[in-house]
Design goal:
alpha+beta, 6-stranded antiparallel sheet, 4-stranded antiparallel sheet, 20% helix, Lipoprotein
Length: 241
């Protein structure tokens, strides 16, 4: 799983200064905003809230920057860390990183792109949406179709114990009295969250995960589907450092 989205763009290596200028010079544009994911879970001892502020960047390169079939379009990426909700001592739920800045109509803030078929109009529409999102400061409910993946560990010291959590049935993972109340997304001026995941999992957790993943691959071979825990990667929890 990866949160990095690229729209098949390759920018010539001699153009980074122009590309990063953010001023539209020669058709290169950049946009940036921070998004905050807020998760509320009902537990037997009351509601628990976890949140994480993540950084969104959008880039545009002009049509003349194409190299073969690549370039001349939009791309975006997301950096930050997963949301961590402490449900009880030693019991956590993690909402893995998910990009809410794509063009799909089921996302939170961005309306569907029109199907005009006109490339110039489409570019203008995306620019206008990005300008709006960069200025917007608002919180909205995340629809079920756009939920991030939810994960827990039965043993926080063992990466191999990662388990998928069903957002409509937390009882199956945590027992009676646990329910997902809401997932919300805000566009915010707050600074990007850092350090929460590694404080909970420990500084050597992802090194141990990589070691166990390699051992499982060596044991099972390349053609056997790996266990769920080894279908996950560090950048599902932390990226863009």
């Amino acid at each position: 799983m990866s949160i990095r989205r690229r729209a098949a763009i390759v920018v010539p290596i001699f153009l980074p200064a122009l590309f990063l200028s953010g001023c539209g010079l020669l058709g290169f544009n950049t946009w940036h905003w921070n998004q905050k994911v807020i998760i509320v879970v009902e537990t037997p001892t009351g509601e628990r809230v976890g949140q994480s502020v993540q950084s969104v960047n959008w880039y545009e390169s002009p049509a003349w920057a194409r190299l073969g079939d690549s370039g001349g379009g939009f791309s975006n990426d997301l950096s930050g860390e997963a949301v961590v909700v402490e449900l009880a001592p030693g019991k956590y739920i993690f909402a893995l990183l998910k990009s809410f800045d794509g063009l799909a109509s089921d996302q939170v803030f961005r309306p569907p792109i029109s199907n005009s078929g006109n490339a110039a109009s489409l570019r203008q529409e995306i620019r206008a949406q990005n300008d709006h999102l960069e200025r917007l400061r608002e919180t909205r409910e995340v629809p079920r179709s756009a939920y991030p993946a939810l994960v827990t560990f039965s043993d926080l010291s063992d990466p191999a114990t990662a388990q998928k959590v069903d957002p409509v049935n937390l009882t199956a993972s945590f027992g009676s009295g646990y329910r997902l109340v809401s997932i919300k997304l805000a566009i915010t001026d707050e600074a990007k969250t850092e350090g929460t995941v590694q404080r909970v999992l420990g500084p050597r957790f992802f090194e141990e995960w990589a070691r166990k993943r390699q051992a499982a691959f060596t044991s099972n071979g390349p053609f056997k589907k790996p266990p769920f825990a080894f279908q996950l990667f560090r950048n599902d929890f932390i990226t863009g450092e």
